[in-house]
Amino acid sequence: MMNTLRWGILGTGAIAAKFAAGLLESTSGRLVAVASRRRDTADTFAAEVLSGLSVARYDHYEKLLADKAVDAVYIATPHPFHAHWAIAAAQAGKHILCEKPMAMNKAQAERMIAAAQKHRVFLMEAFMYRCHPVVTELRGLLRQGAIGQVRMIHANFGFRCAVDDTHRLLNHALGGGGILDVGCYPISLARWVAGVAAGRDFLDPTAVAGAGTIGVRTGVDEMASALLTFPNEILACVNAAVRCDLPNAVHIAGSEGRIEVPWLWVPRRSGNRIIVHRPNGEPMTLAIDAPADVYALEADVVAAAIAGGLQEPPAPAMNWADTLGNMQTLDRWREAINLKYGYADEA
Ligand SMILES: NC(=O)c1ccc[n+]([C@@H]2O[C@H](COP(=O)([O-])OP(=O)(O)OC[C@H]3O[C@@H](n4cnc5c(N)ncnc54)[C@H](OP(=O)(O)O)[C@@H]3O)[C@@H](O)[C@H]2O)c1
Which residue ranges form the domains of the chain, and what is each CATH number? Predict the structure, then answer.
């Protein structure tokens, strides 16, 4: 593939800048357009982030969706706007990479998938870590029985955000809180590991117990924990926070050892490690490098799937059923702590 997929970006915030930078390393795609709600932010993004790369700039997302030179859009808005723009993009015939979480709840994600099906476009939730070789290496170890039978998973994603209450991370109207912003990662990992242990792409938990602290001022979950029980008797303990730094490692304990991945959520080009601890043995450390930036790898997964005529990616990237299972688990976690965002169809 020779950089044939023509990308447009909706939104010019923090992750849009990272994706745009990553896309420069993609072997399959290139950025051709960027849209902001204002012309000056689109111009600033092009000048500062794209270092003068020549792209079309729009002051409305609709205008980018009408651009025939765009094949695929990357949706980089706060979560509450993912569903609207993904459905509009599908209606405009654009393929879609949508930031995580796919939506505010499972019902919205179902409507997005229905729109992709109806308009025959590709749709993927942007869990980029699933596109990195560290995940395929981890899957190989689990399948080979490197730690025997998987029994327990511990995974955290938490950080102390230094922002005021109006920022999307703490703002109820912008879908703030840790469960949706970062909890979606360890939930997706736990479901994936339980699935790999069962010879599947993912498994959904039979039970979800949750606890959480909802900020008095913010009304969003600032710290939250969940316990998942899987049908193959695997247990997972997951934590998410936007008010404190957590030890953001993944630990998978088995009948004959345990695996530690010190940092999985935004894997790097080099320096990624998987450590296998075996009973009575020296730990074995695997170093995993990637051929490119993780966002370039993600864009290449999208392009390869589209070139192959697929509407959803092959595992371990997030396919539609995986996304729906993840959204449902997030719904259940929020329900357990009575965290609502006021949507008529939220669980
Ligand atoms: N995969 C990852 O590594 C990763 C990392 C961080 C975040 N994310 C996800 O990416 C999404 C965006 O996160 P972010 O950190 O980039 O957020 P951000 O810095 O706040 O940027 C969001 C952008 O969305 C656009 N937007 C559209 N409607 C908006 C509204 N009503 N209020 C505020 N902004 C609006 C704005 O762009 P314009 O002004 O140009 O329209 C804004 O710059 C979230 O869903 C988040 O979960 C993913």
Answer: 5-126 (3.40.50.720), 129-294+326-336 (3.30.360.10)
